Amino acid sequence: MTTQNTVREAGILGTGHYVPEKVLTNRDFEKILDTTDEWIYSRTGMKERRIAAPEQATSDLCIEAGRRAIEDSGLQPDQIGLIIVATVTPDHLVPATAPIVQHALGCVNSGAFDVEAACSGFVTGLSVAQGLIGNGTLDNVLVIGGECMSRILDYEDRASCILFGDGSGAAVVSSTATRGRILQSFVGADGSGSHTMQVMAGGSRRPADIAAVQEKMHLLTIKGNDVFKFAVSTFRRLLEQQMRDFDFGPDGLGLVVPHQVNYRIIESALKKLDIPEEKIFMNLEKYGNTSGASVGIALDEAIRQKRPQEGQYLSLIAFGAGLTWASALLRW
Ligand SMILES: CC(C)(COP(=O)(O)OP(=O)(O)OC[C@H]1O[C@@H](n2cnc3c(N)ncnc32)[C@H](O)[C@@H]1OP(=O)(O)O)[C@@H](O)C(=O)NCCC(=O)NCCS
User: Fold this and answer.
1) Please, how many CA atoms are within 13 Å of residue 57, restricted to the half-sphere of its CB?
2) Using a 6 Å cutoff on CB, does residue 225 contact ligand 1?
3) How close are the terminal C-alpha atoms of the chain, in Å?
4) What is the mean pLDDT of the chain?
């Protein structure tokens, strides 16, 4: 599904992010797992990640990031017409997390729903927002990616638990924004790869009964090597498509804010595309992979560091469980 040439323009009016205070370092993992700081850093680029406090749920992280994004936008909460929360770790199966966030933020004129597109969730939300603003249905949409990944990780599985962290990133997408115009967005999927990253129990196919929990089926499993190959080729393909569709090369590209999955994945794709390292924004050293939150957090940090400069092409690219992928090309 591609959304482009819409009637009205949609851009980024404000952004914000929130990460919990607790830091879990690679050295902390050395105490509980057969692993080393050196192994984790050299294979992933990650040094530490944030972990939500026991009393915090995903909505709490989203509320804070959403509040910051609304403040940054200069809008009042009652001017938001829709809140989209992208998450694989909702507070509950029912209700969705977005209405909880909507109520807490006082967005009394807003609809609210969740998007479950895993690590592609935040960029998928931006694409939905672009479409609804473009066709005149809405003026202002708050897109939030938020995750408590620590709640679905198996901390005895060294191949998966070291990869993820908790956090939330948000953006107000608006018809009145003068920067960050979304020129094109794209979402895609290939469900034949649905087995590569899964939480098996807790849904309608396998409720989380005692046996399922004993077998840890309520926790995340990943086939890291399969995902690695998919991630490299998808990242490359989506970026190439943007450059082709808008007729620019590595020199014309301003900045890429990719899903913060693994430094080696991004590096490998960039080398093939001949794009220099300084054109990529990475923060996974501090936060690990925060799934649906990762592009939202990175986008907010990149903007605050004045990384995308006026007039530049800003590329957002994400991919993850499903398998799913999403991209957006913005003019900053
Ligand atoms: C997970 C990932 C870092 C593994 O890196 P890798 O270089 O491919 O490593 P491999 O999976 O080939 O494992 C190599 C060895 O390291 C071991 N290993 C795995 N995790 C380890 C850890 N934390 N510490 C030490 N050794 C570890 C494996 O058991 C394996 O040992 P073996 O050869 O004796 O079987 C990498 O594949 C990756 O990032 N994949 C994508 C991650 C992902 O799915 N993210 C979410 C999707 S958006």
Assistant:
1) 12
2) yes
3) 23
4) 96
DSSP per-residue string spanning 125-184: HHHHHHHHHHTTS-SEEEEEEEE-GGGS--TT-TTTGGGB--EEEEEEEETT-SS-EEEE
Q: Which of 290, 240, 230, 309 is nearest to 270 (CA)?
A: 240
* C-alpha torsion 187→188→193→195, nearest 10: 40
- Name the pLDDT band for 226 (thresholds 50, 70, 90): confident
pLDDT digits (tens, 9 = 90+) for 155-170: 999 999 999 999 999 9
Catalytic residue among 62, 107, 119, 148: 119
Residues 6+ apart with CB under 8 A from 226: 193, 196
Q: Closest Cα partner for 102 from 147, 57, 67?
A: 67
Look up residue 84 and give its DSSP letter.
E
**For the chain, which residues make up each domain, given as ranges?**
1-332
Asked: is 1-332 a CATH 3.40.47.10 domain? The reply is yes
Active site residue 259: yes
Residue of the nearest CA to atom 42 in ligand 1?
224
Per-residue pLDDT reduced to its tens digit, 245-276: 999 999 999 999 999 999 999 998 888 888 99
Q: Is 6 a residue whose pLDDT tops 70?
A: no
Model pTM score: 0.96
- The values of phi and psi at residue 267, to 5°, are -60, -45
Indicate if ligand 1 lies below 6 Å from the C-beta of 163: yes
Listed residue (175, 152, 148, 130) closest to 65, CA to CA? 148
